[in-house]
Write a structure and sequence with these properties.
- Helix content is 35%, strand content 26%.
- It has a six-stranded parallel beta sheet, with helices on both faces. A five-stranded mixed beta sheet has the order 7-8-6-9-10, covered by helices on one side.
- The radius of gyration is 19 Å and the shape is elongated.
């Protein structure tokens, strides 16, 4: 399979390493010195996009209009998802997006939703989320933390919304879930869910040791997406 890399930072390089190990080739690399407008997209069977939120839609539009399947790992662009859906329908395109491509994180999403359901009757417990990432990460909270927060709000009757602050837990209103975003050097990603009462604390944590899990998931997503049409997520890849 010929893969086009859109974004060639640390994640792009990690994806390249995994792709080559799995017998694929790299058709092109898009970065600031080689923008997508200068690339022949027809050289690739699928593109994997990890760039910046402000560039994501531009990259998606270019690929979909050329009917190049695209896997999108960039986060904080999802407000434009309705427009992307229209674009896919108009061009018979294919796109797979996820806030996190790690297999472990996607299992963690399911654990979080189930735990939220179990804790819903017990108002004596207060839920909270803490996410820690490297200082280069532009969005806060992380896309993964957004999915986790939404998972609690949708599955626990104690919560109707969530709020995030950086560096320390936010001041929350009634029925509001608090999310704390922390930025430290060289942290691939740690997400912790806590339910705390006067008696005890229940905690589940996912800690990434490196970027390989994200890279492998992105390549698996690309392998899944080839020859498919429509909009997909990692839940489709992993059948969760």
């Amino acid at each position: 399979m010929k893969i086009g890399l859109i974004g060639y930072g640390k994640m792009g390089k990690a994806i390249e390493e995994i792709a080559l190990e799995r017998g694929h080739t790299i058709a092109f690399r898009v970065n600031s010195e080689n923008p997508i407008e200068q690339v022949n997209l027809h050289l690739a069977d699928v593109a994997i996009e990890f760039s910046q939120p402000v560039l994501a839609f531009q990259h998606i539009e270019a690929c979909v209009k050329q009917q190049l399947p695209i896997v999108v790992g960039t986060t904080a662009w999802q407000e434009q998802l309705p427009e992307v859906i229209d674009l896919l329908e108009a061009n018979d395109g294919s796109l797979l997006h996820s806030s996190n491509f790690s297999i472990g994180v996607n299992i963690f999403f399911q654990l979080n939703e189930r735990l939220a359901q179990l804790m819903s009757p017990y108002s004596e417990y207060t839920a909270g989320i803490e996410e820690i990432h490297h200082i280069q990460k532009l969005d806060a909270p992380s896309g993964t933390a957004v999915v986790l927060a939404d998972g609690i709000v949708q599955n626990n009757n104690q919560y109707e919304s969530w709020i995030c602050s950086q560096g320390q837990p936010p001041v929350t209103a009634a029925h509001q879930l608090g999310v704390t975003a922390i930025r430290l050097p060289d942290v691939p990603g740690t997400h912790t869910i806590r339910y705390t009462s006067e008696i005890d604390t229940i905690t589940i944590t996912h800690e990434a040791h490196n970027r390989k899990g994200f890279a492998l998931g992105a390549v698996l997503a690309a392998e899944f997406l080839v020859n498919k049409k429509g909009l997909f997520t990692m839940r489709d890849v992993l059948s969760l």
